[in-house]
TrEMBL record:
This is Galactose-1-phosphate uridylyltransferase. Residues 144-226 form the Galactose-1-phosphate uridyl transferase N-terminal domain. Its cofactor is Zn(2+). Keywords: Carbohydrate metabolism, Galactose metabolism, Metal-binding, Nucleotidyltransferase, Transferase, Zinc. GO terms for molecular function: nucleotidyltransferase activity.
């Protein structure tokens, strides 16, 4: 395999090195090398012959709620639970023309079938170049029947490991720290793209959640709008006080819902948890996103987050499916009041039972919870205590 002449190398924090290149169809690919990696400095070229990228999807506005719904029909043909020899996230081999052309520690690349993008707003004489692109938050907030906009933005895949199976929680501390550095780096880069309003790193884990690939990976969405969940948070802050999130953290740290605490981070089951398993992880200092975290905060997060995830898996004899979403402040609003945090949720309410969102929750958004947060926190504390300290 020939070597890539366009590789661009940068040194990041914690000894992580980023190597940037392009895939055969022009999508961006970034390698994040562990400190002290055994990999060489070169990476192979993606020599595949690929079809052109799909047209950027279209958003339609639900005039009854103001929500924007993306219609990304190209996503219908995604790969479903492939075998190891056909894993699209594994390093390429002669028999597996996967998405990553070389061996790697952590790899990030643009999704081939994105919900947002590849088009972005690129102003030409002050006019957005993308056809029918959003024209800012005021434009998106207007209401009208039949309103559409182009789903500009970016969707990226984050491969935590070249292994075929696993999750973030199965990684080493060193690897977890590399991923955290990648999240921070991508948050900064995506936030700077034209038209991006919010950046959301997340991991879907388990078939019960709808995962289609067993490979240990997550995703990052860069939205052209502020998400509905964050809009409600901004409204709550406006209706209470700018320090609302500080007050919430102080209350949870002083409660019997606290499950894990470090010098810089606290994990807790929230006072009004919706899901049978729900835990939030928040930094003690205000930080709007990963890019704003100090090296000390990132260093502590790696082992603490791993221990939390391994505690979640210790609740039952088999691994638990979950969504681990890193909520970050919007790019252009709420930076001084919205504190980043993890919200990990799972529908698993017993070893062999799941919570399904039926009439009240799904249709009306009116939740009924079966497990008290204090009980859930006690169970999770016990599970975490059974997990050895994470040191490697």
């Amino acid at each position: 395999m020939s070597e890539s002449p366009e590789l661009r190398t940068s040194e990041l924090g914690a000894g992580v090195v980023r190597r940037a290149t392009r895939l055969a169809d022009g999508r961006e690919l970034l390698y994040y090398d562990d400190p002290g990696t055994s990999l060489g400095s070169e990476r192979g070229v993606d020599a595949r012959t690929l079809d052109g990228r799909p047209e950027t999807a279209t958003m339609r506005q639900d005039v009854l709620t103001g929500d924007w719904i993306t219609f990304a029909t190209a996503r219908q043909n995604r790969v479903m639970m492939p075998s190891a020899d056909a894993d699209p996230l594994a390093p390429q081999t002669p028999s597996n023309p996967s998405e990553v052309p070389a061996q790697y520690d952590v790899a990030v690349f643009e999704n081939r079938s994105p919900a947002f993008g590849p088009a972005l707003i690129e102003a030409v004489g002050g006019v957005p170049a993308a056809r029918n692109a959003p024209r800012g938050l005021d434009d998106l907030a207007e209401l009208g029947v039949g309103r559409t906009r182009t789903s500009i933005g970016r969707c990226e895949v984050v491969c935590f490991s070249p292994d075929h199976e696993g999750s973030f929680g199965t990684q080493s501390v060193t690897r977890a720290r590399t991923v955290i550095e990648a999240w921070a780096d991508r948050t900064a880069a995506l936030s700077a793209l034209p038209g991006i309003q919010q950046v959301f790193p997340f991991e879907n884990r388990g078939e019960a959640i709808g995962v289609t690939l067993p490979h240990p990976h997550g995703q990052i969405y860069a939205y052209p709008y502020v998400t509905p969940r964050t809009q409600r948070l901004l409204d709550s802050i406006d209706r209470t006080a700018p320090d609302l999130m500080t007050r919430v953290l102080d209350s949870e740290r002083d409660s019997d819902r606290l499950v894990l605490q470090g010098e810089h981070w606290t994990a807790f089951v929230p006072f009004a948890a919706r899901w049978p398993l729900e835990v939030h992880l928040m930094p003690h200092r205000h930080a709007p996103d990963f890019a704003a975290l100090t090296n000390a905060e990132r260093d502590e997060l790696a082992p603490l987050y791993l221990r939390l995830l391994r505690g979640v898996d210790a609740l039952y004899p088999t691994p638990t499916a979950y969504i681990a979403g890193w909520h970050q402040a919007p790019v252009n609003t709420g930076r001084e009041t919205v504190r980043m945090r993890l919200e990990l949720t799972s529908p698993r309410r017993a070893e062999d039972k799941l919570k399904f969102l039926a009439g009240s929750e799904a249709a009306m958004g009116a939740w009924t919870a079966e497990i008290l947060p204090e009980v859930a926190a006690e169970r999770l504390r016990t599970a975490i205590e059974s997990v050895p300290e994470v040191t490697a």
